[in-house]
């Protein structure tokens, strides 16, 4: 199984650790994220799916970005998914992404300025 990256949002703390797709008893919901582009850059979009501990889908969200890179789409999926969680008041979220580069950007706090603006705005709410 290929490695996935686990972004755990727990009590306003963002941590990123390399992990394999598995259940996590500390988390109430799992957020699967993905982004893609046709060409790089090209027409891009992102999507997220929230599942509870039983695997039941409890929320979805998708969006288009116009012309963007696949990396931008991956990062946007993570931010928009977390924004949805914040809006809904959901805590203890496990985020699974197949983009090691996006996960590392959050881990090292090296997030593209457009994504950072969205991230900071929603964390302040």
UniProtKB/TrEMBL annotation:
| Cross-referenced InterPro entries | RNase_H-like, RNase_H-like_dom_plant, RNaseH-like_sf, RNaseH_domain, RNaseH_sf
**Which ranges carry the RNase H type-1 domain?**
25-125
Q: Which domain of life is it from?
A: Eukaryota
Supply the SUPFAM superfamilies for this chain: Ribonuclease H-like
Read off the CDD domains from this record.
RNase_H_like
Check the record and name the Pfam families matching this protein.
Answer: RVT_3
Entry GO MF terms: nucleic acid binding; RNA-DNA hybrid ribonuclease activity
- PANTHER family annotated for this entry? OS05G0353850 PROTEIN, REVERSE TRANSCRIPTASE-LIKE PROTEIN
**Name the record gives this protein:** RNase H type-1 domain-containing protein
Species of origin: Coptis chinensis
Organism ancestry:
Eukaryota, Viridiplantae, Streptophyta, Embryophyta, Tracheophyta
């Amino acid at each position: 199984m290929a490695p996935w990256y686990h972004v755990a949002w727990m009590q306003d703390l963002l941590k990123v650790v390399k992990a394999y797709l598995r259940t996590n008893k500390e988390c109430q919901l799992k957020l699967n994220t993905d982004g893609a582009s046709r060409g790089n850059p090209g027409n891009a979009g992102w999507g997220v799916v929230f599942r509870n501990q039983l695997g039941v889908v409890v929320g979805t969200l998708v969006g288009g970005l116009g012309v963007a890179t696949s990396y931008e789409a991956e990062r946007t999926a993570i931010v928009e998914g977390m924004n949805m969680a914040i809006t809904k008041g959901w805590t203890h979220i496990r985020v699974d992404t197949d983009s090691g580069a996006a996960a590392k950007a959050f881990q090292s706090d090296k997030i593209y300025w457009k994504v950072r603006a969205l991230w900071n705005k929603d964390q302040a709410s």
